Each structure stands twice: as C-alpha cells, then as structure tokens.
Amino acid sequence: MSAGSIGLWLMAIVQGSLFVALVWRLLPGRTRRPAVAPRLEPRTDTSVSVIVATLNEAHRISPCLDGLMAQPAPLSEILVVDSRSTDGTGELVTRAAQRDARVRLITDDPLPAGWVGKVWALETGLRQAKGEWVLGIDADTEPQPGMIPAIIDAAEQYGYDVVSFGPRFAGQSSAERFVQPAMLLTLVYRCGAAGADDPPPDRVMANGQCFLARRAVLEEHGGYAPARASFCDDVSLARHVAARGARVGFLDGSRVIGVRAYSSLGEMWREWGRSFDLKDATPMWRRWFDVALVWSTQALPLPMLITLALAGMWPALGELSAVNLLWMFNAAALIARLLMLVALRGSYAERGWPFWLSFLSDIPAAIRLTISTARQPRAWRGRAYGELEPAT
Question: What is the DSSP string of 260-328?
C-alpha cells in the first residue's frame, strides 16, 4: 500500500470516527422540546427577581428595561446592578424606576480579586433578591410580551431547577448573518441542540442572556461564586450545579426573548470569540477534541468534496475503499450541515441569502474557535484581568 493510500485511509478513519461522535451528540435533538410560547396571563403563585448587570450600557439598555417593565406577575423586582457606568446608564435606570416601582438601581462594591465583573454584579444582585426565582438578563436583550410567566411555566413543566433560554437574534447586518450562524453552530456541534433531554452535566449548555434559577438552589450551591473567575460564567455555573444533582435545562426561547448582542461583525468576532470555546467550563483535552470535531464535520466536508472531485477521485460503486468512505462521510456531514440551517432558522429574525449561505463561513468559524481555544482572555467589556483562579 502506497503512502498516499495510507494517508487516505487515515483521513477516512479519523473523519468517520468524528462524524459518528457528531451524530451521537445530535441524535437527542430529534425529540427536542418546542420553543417556549409566550403567556400573557399573569401568575400570582410565585415571584421572580430579575438581575441586570450593567457597565456602560446606555446605548442599548432601554429596550431591555421597557420589555421587563411590560411583564406581568410573577415579576416582582428588577434589580439593575451597575458597576459605576460613566455613560449615563444609571440616569436611564433612575428614570425607569420613576415609571415602575419594581425597578431598583444598585451600585456594586469594587470588584474583588479573582472575580469577573459581570459575575460579581450578578452575585451582588442575588444577595438582595427576594423572589423565589432569580432571572439573570443581559442589557442587550429585549424581553417579549409574556416572557416571565412563560419561562416559569416551562421550568415547572419540565422540572428544572436551573434553565436558560436561547434567544432570537435580531438587527444583524448581512455580514453578521453570514458569519454568526456558523459560529453558533459550533456550539450545537459541541454541546447538542437546545431542548434536548437531560444531557450529561459536562455537556450542559446555558445562555447567560436569559438564565433562570430557583433562588434556594442557587444559594445552596454557592450562588454565582462557583463561576466567579469564568468568562463563560453561564455554562460554568450550569455545569457546576448539574454535577451536584440539580436539574438543569436549556430551551428554545426564540419566541419570548430577542437579542442584539453586538453592534458589528468585528465586535462579535472579538467579544463572543473570546469565550465561546467554553474553556472555563471544559477540560483541555475535550476542548481540543471538539476543535477537531468542528473542523472535520463542519468546516472541511465541502472543501474535501471539491478537492476529491478536482483530483478525479470519484466514488466507485461496490468497493470498500478510502475514497468511497471519504465521499460518504463528507457528503453526509455536508447534508447534516445544511439541514442544521433549517433547524436554526427560527432563531433569526432576519435571514435572507447571508443566513442561507452562512455554511460558507464554516472555515472562519473553525479558525475563530481554534484561536479562542488556544488563548486565555485578559480583557472583557472594557475591563482588564490578570490571572484568574478557577473556583473549585
């Protein structure tokens, strides 16, 4: 057997093994739970404290506050924890508090050593929260009518102690819609689909933009402190409590919460790209295995099929050969990739040709994942950090 044939067989074995791993991860998504539907009727049998962590969010917090103030019971308080913003965020919150007595502005204490700023703000809010449930909301989210009663219904229906919700992305530029879905899909390939039943604790996915927990359960497991040094605090915290027996879920919230997280493709590439490798919540060996899986099953199938065709390596019926296996695995992976676009379409308010052609951005997405996996972030949302010791 020639060196070339050996190389082809090695590629076929590696790609085939990683494709099987991908299928195993995605199979639970066949029976995933439907998107949470809004509930406009109030509930008076429980209470929810919302915590919004802010630092210079004046340019985008108003839709978030407006959406929250339109929510009925069981929303009982909206705690905006501000880290000494200098852009007028506090003034906007103060004006909102004059319109709705549930809104309260809190200034957190100076950031302690070993804490990421957002996590410290959430912990500060938790210490003052009074609701049976605590809901962490990012300032860039836009709660839709009926969100709060709906997510409480969903948490109770499925028996979750902690549950977060994937949003609907809105207001994206064409460039963002061409790249961001490819980056989002790497999360699905690494962690599974939203709404899938009971993933193992080390594969639990979470979204800090809309993160709901029973306050008693959160406090029992240390509040937000277990994720204090994490740049992916949502996933770190969800996996922490799941490993200790709490029931944790991740549901499709595209009907109840919207988000415009970044102002441009460049900001999304920098800010989200720093954390979406989930390094603070995932062992190193698994992160690099996932990088290999994303390259093999998401980024490379289309280039591999084009390369095989240009090299004249066409499949031959009835043969067990490396070329036949490469065609089979790469074609199957490409079909799965295109089907994932259909599955993701409900998470985007605007789609158009950039969304449907976003599979052409799979190589840049894999590159960004590789860079993020290899680097430790040192700055986040305008704050610089030194060495952070993970919580134990």
Answer: ---SSHHHHHHHHHHHTT-GGGS-HHHHHHHHHHHIIIIISHHHHHHHHHHTT----TT---HHHHHHH
